[in-house]
Amino acid sequence: MGFSGKIMGAFGTGRTKLTIPPFVPNRIISQRFFSSDYNGIYQEKVSPSQLHIEQESENNLHRRMQRIVPNSMVIWYSGNSKANGRGVVMAYVPIKEQYITKYVEFESPDWNVSKVVGGSKEEIKTLINTNVV
Question: Whole-prediction pTM value?
Fold first, then answer.
């Protein structure tokens, strides 16, 4: 989370301006795009671009969230969670000119929250138990 890419193929780096995480494109099964209007209401729309593309890691340092998918919440989740006994959700949520980032890991058999980065377990449990209409 917040990892931007590698410099000279070896040194990992993060950026103050959040970039698209450098996931390997062939591991992405699907992509759906939701964007908010001025009222903060999210609706599904046609994606303006492919989020994950094949490129050198260094080039990812220039793929800033605000430029590629402006005002858009982006959520990634792991696959094969049942077989792995753990699942992960990572979210980048735009707030004004910056992003709030969250990483939540769940473990079976009860799928309890086992790790949180960018918040607390209590905050995530509250979100999970909130009915949103």
Answer: 0.74
Calpha distance 39→53 (Å, rounded): 31
72-108 CB burial, b ≥16 within 10 A, e <16 = bbbebeeeebeeeebbbbbbbebeeeebebbbbbbee
Classified as helix, coil or strand, 52 is: coil
Name every residue whose Cβ is closer than 8 Å to that of residue 89 and which is 6 or more positions away in sequence.
Answer: 75, 76, 77, 78, 102, 103, 104, 106
Q: Is 56 left (phi over 0), alpha (psi -120 to 50) or beta?
A: beta
Query: Which 8-state DSSP code applies to residue 125?
Result: H
Which DSSP letter does residue 127 get?
H
pLDDT digits (tens, 9 = 90+) for 77-129: 998 899 999 999 999 888 887 888 999 999 999 999 999 999 999 999 888 88
pLDDT tens digits, 9-66: 444 444 458 888 888 888 888 888 877 777 878 888 888 778 888 888 788 888 888 8
